[in-house]
Amino acid sequence: MSTLSTKPRILLVDDDTDILLALSDYLLQEGFEVDSVGTGGAALQKSSTSSYDIVLLDVGLPDRDGIEVLNELSQTHPHLPVILLTAFTSLRRTAHPDILEKAFAYLTKPYQRQEVKSAIHRACLARNIAIAGWQSSFAPTQSIATFPSLLQPSSTGASLHDATQHPLNLTAYEQLAEYAQLMQFAFDHVPNGIMVADSDKRLRFANQAACDSLGYTQEELKTLRIPDIAPYHDNEKFQQRLESLRKGQPLSYPSIHRTKNGQEFPIEISVYLLNFQGQEFTCAVTRPAVEKSPKA
Q1: What is the pLDDT of residues 172-191, one digit of tens each?
Q2: For the chain, which end, N or C, has fewer CB atoms within 10 Å of the first or last residue's CB respectively?
Q3: Which domain of life is it from (predicted)?
Q4: Of 125, 154, 188, at which residue does a domain stop?
């Protein structure tokens, strides 16, 4: 897999040769590696034989509906962000929400250069987070404020068709929503379970991996407390562990979780203490317990 520090590899899929050449030339100038194809079938073939960091996918292809290609890519390459390219400004209103959720983002033709570049950088970051999993040097110690220069699009961007500068006109709310989409995408593609609980032990956030392992939806988990999923939860030990966290000591230990249907399974859990707007939260990163091989 490529990283932002090397050269992200992009698969560009569009049947319009003029757009294909213009966008490909621009991305090459920006330091990306680009493979270009003009059909959905060629895109699926390329993705099966080569590794990519991002797919820029036109919705209107001659052989396959771009949405169908998106569906197949999301199944065969779940960690691969797909940015839809569309000439239809009504796509968000007409396409099924479940389909749009499979795309990382979509751009409406004619594209603006900075808009394209910004979307690619955000998608690369999300992919790197999703593939690498939760790194101890990331969220527990780093503030969200460290990323905006990379994540937030510039206030202006040049059109691929001319050198005129055009404002993106993204409001602060849209930028915040865009950032939230990125974080949700990243956390939902991390292979380990991530859950955040408040000081009353009520679950406030759970990513998709946590939901899948426990058999709950995200909304269902938000109605539960830690003891509901950890049947052997010991409050006294929990308070002792909190004190250790407050002293800056790392905390990892084996535990047992219980699914919605009552099945218990062993896990390894790492806990971090978060202070947000004057409130204390615990963030648990869980993974299946590794079975020890019997000694010979």
Answers
A1: 445 555 666 777 777 878 88
A2: C
A3: Bacteria
A4: 188
